[in-house]
Structures are given as C-alpha cells and as structure tokens.
Automatic annotation (TrEMBL):
Cofactors (names): Zn(2+)
Cellular component terms (Gene Ontology): extracellular space
Protein name: Peptidase M14
PANTHER family the record matches: PROTEASE FAMILY M14 CARBOXYPEPTIDASE A,B (PTHR11705), SLL0236 PROTEIN (PTHR11705:SF143)
Pfam families: Peptidase_M14
Residues the record marks as active site: E341
Organism, as annotated: Paludifilum halophilum
Biological processes annotated in GO: proteolysis
Length: 393
C-alpha cells in the first residue's frame, strides 16, 4: 500500500495525474481509440433539469418538494429536492464537477420513484428524509467542464482579507481536460470544503494543498455546507452523505482484465483516532464502520444484478487523505459516506454506455436507501468492505 501511495504521489507531482474525482486529468489508455465523445445532449442540461424537477414535484402530489438551496457564481439557482419525513437523513449530491452528469440522471429517477404511490416508496418515505442536490455546480455543467466559473479577483471581492494572497492551489487558469480556463478561470469545488463547518478563509491557509482542508470560497461549496448544517440543526445529524462522480474509462477490477463499471469508497481521510492526527477533535464523531456498511449495501445490490458489467465493481484507492473534499469533511462530522465513481467522462465515454451507467448508479443508490430504511444496513459486517476488490490503475 505504501509503494502504491508513493507511486501515485510521484505521478501527481510529475504529470498531474490522479483518479478523476480527485484528479486534474481523465485517464486514457495509451494507443486505444477513444470510445467517442459523449453528446451532452444525451444528458439533462441545466434548463432541462429544472423542468424535470418541477415535473417530478408536480407528479408527486406534494411528496417531493423542490426549492432553491443557493446560487452559483454566475447566478444560476442550485436546486434541492426533499422527499420523506423519516428520522434517517440522507444527503446526496451530483455534478460537483460539471462534466460528470450520470449521477444526476440516476438521482432524478430515484426522486421519481420515492415520490410515487407504491407501498415500498411510502415505507421508505416513512423512514428516510432524502435531500438531493442533482446538479450542485450548474455553471460547470453548462460549460461541460470540471471547474466552476469564478475568478480569484471575485474571491478577493468576497473576502478582502485575501488581498495579495497567492490563489488557491485548485484554481484553474490553464488547459485541463481539453478546456481552456485562461479566459474563464474556475475552481475545483471538490477541494473547497473544510471539516470546520464555520470556517472562514484566512490568508495563512493559502495556497494550501490536496492533503489540506479547503476554505469555502466558492458559492457552490458554501451552498452544500449550508444545506448540511441546516439538516444537522433540524434533525440532529446527517446520517448518510453520498457524492456521485465519474472516473477514467480504462481502470480494471483488481487482479482481472475487467473494466471497472463503478468504483465505491467509504474512506477519504486518515483516521482521526490516530495519535498523530490533526483532526482529533472529530474522532468521536467519525464513523468509518458505518461508511463501510453503506458501501457494502451498494456493492451487494449491484452484485445481485447478475452478469457483467454490474459485477465489475471495485473499491476506489484507499490510501488517500482528502479533508478538503465534501466526503472527507462530512465524514469527520459524523456522516456515513459513500463515493460513486462511474466509468468515463464526457470527453471519453461513448453514448452507448449512458443507460448502463445510469442504471448502475441508480441500483447502488437503491441498495443503500433500502438498507437504511429497513435497518438492514446495521446488520452488515463492516469487514465485508475489505473483500471488495480494489481498482487497478
């Protein structure tokens, strides 16, 4: 594991390569023809998503409530949908990176089901309060790129104490994933979170690094932080947080030649219970065992789908420490956490995979929600998590 971590660290330093939810570059298999650009018209645009959410709300006869959670840097409303009245609170976000839209489609389908008349949906609504943010970075989604649409000068306008400070390390100004950020810079919002939910930016914390917390300088991260805090205030805690992503298209299930359909993970930060941890204050809240149970619930649901590709599920690399991600920050605040990483991004996956991947995400989410609603998740042996094959990269 140490050798793997060292190798990945060298790659990051030398080439800027990292798994896609945490990376600057999508992974491409050398010498292999691209699977074809995925037409973004095949996925919901911002305007289409808004119409779809309103339709879901109307058809649910009041069971699904859609409202504004916040506003993006370019003034687009970031929508949240709430369904259910149960004591178990689940927060799910998608498209923190604008070019990763599969989870958004799956999440809308989950909302359609939970807003329906079936007895199963009713039972789940009685046990769970689900809050979904299907497109948390709409500016990036509209430009089909990873980073949001925001300049460092705009950050300084919001936080004058940062005048003269070197920009954050996750500020994009060059070419990334085929997009030129030089004229319209932006931030990787998935590095702008901090386990201190009341943190305000301090000059001495910049430019920072991937192994350090973020700063809540982007309105998109502030919106999710505020949503998370409001749920904690209302319900006492957020039991589960799930974040939906994409990764590179040519990773393999450990020890096989099978291409990964979807990677899962419940580990994003080093254990705060370690003697040398700088996050000891969060040790009592951190619940890695529950995160492992949630991931196993998703894995088991996908394995029950039968033949490949739904069996091609793996664990995301486990030797990471990323407190600046939403998953890392919320895990330290006591939420059970799950990362979904489906295969490919809009630059590198073919249209034919769309339905397959949406179904995989939906199936995994249903496995988690059903097990939380019934309580079965608490009976899962957390050690089963360790038997999920790790991704070969």
């Amino acid at each position: 594991m140490k050798k793997t971590a060292l190798l990945l660290a060298c790659l990051v330093f030398s080439f800027g390569v990292w798994p896609a939810a945490f990376a600057d570059q999508p992974q491409t298999k050398p010498g292999t023809p691209d699977e074809g650009h995925l037409s973004t018209s095949g996925f919901l645009s911002y305007e289409q998503l808004v119409k779809k959410l309103r339709q879901v709300e109307k058809n649910s006869q009041g069971r699904v409530e859609v409202e504004a959670a916040g506003t993006s840097n370019r003034g687009r409303t970031i929508h949240r949908a709430t369904v259910g009245s149960g004591d178990k609170v689940v927060l799910i976000t998608s498209q923190i990176h604008g070019n990763e839209p599969t989870g958004t489609e799956a999440l809308v389908r989950i909302l359609q089901f939970l807003g329906g008349d079936s007895r199963k949906a009713q039972k789940m609504r009685d046990e769970i309060t689900l809050v979904a943010v299907p497109q948390m970075n709409p500016d990036a989604a509209e430009r089909n790129r990873r980073g949001n649409d925001m300049t460092w000068d705009e950050v300084v306008q919001d936080f004058p104490n940062l005048t003269g400070v070197k920009p954050a390390w996750n500020y994009y100004t060059g070419t990334l994933q085929g997009h030129d950020y030089s004229k319209r810079p932006g931030f990787d919002v998935n590095r702008d979170f901090n386990p201190d939910l009341n943190y305000t930016p301090r000059p001495e914390d910049f430019p920072g690094s991937s192994s350090e917390p973020g700063w809540y300088v982007t309105p998109e991260s502030q919106t999710i932080r505020d949503t998370y805090q409001s749920l904690k205030q209302q319900h006492g805690k957020v039991d589960v947080y799930i974040d939906l992503h994409h990764q590179g298209p040519y990773y393999h299930v450990g020890g096989t030649d099978d291409l990964v359909t979807l990677s899962l993970s419940g580990k994003f930060v080093a254990d705060p219970n370690r003697p040398e941890s700088e996050y000891k204050e969060y040790a009592d809240e951190y619940n890695y065992e529950f995160s492992r149970q949630l991931n196993v619930a998703a894995y088991q649901a996908l394995q029950q789908m039968g033949n490949s590709p739904f069996k091609n599920i793996s664990l995301y690399p486990q030797d990471i420490d990323l407190p600046g991600t939403a998953l890392g920050s919320f895990a330290l605040n006591g939420s059970g956490t799950v990362l979904f990483e489906v295969r490919g991004q809009t630059q590198s996956m073919g249209q034919k995979m769309r339905g397959q991947l949406v179904k995989a995400v939906k199936t995994g989410l249903e496995g988690i929600l059903d097990s939380v609603a019934t309580g079965d998740v608490y009976e899962i042996d957390p050690e089963e998590y360790e038997h999920i094959p790790e991704t070969d990269r």
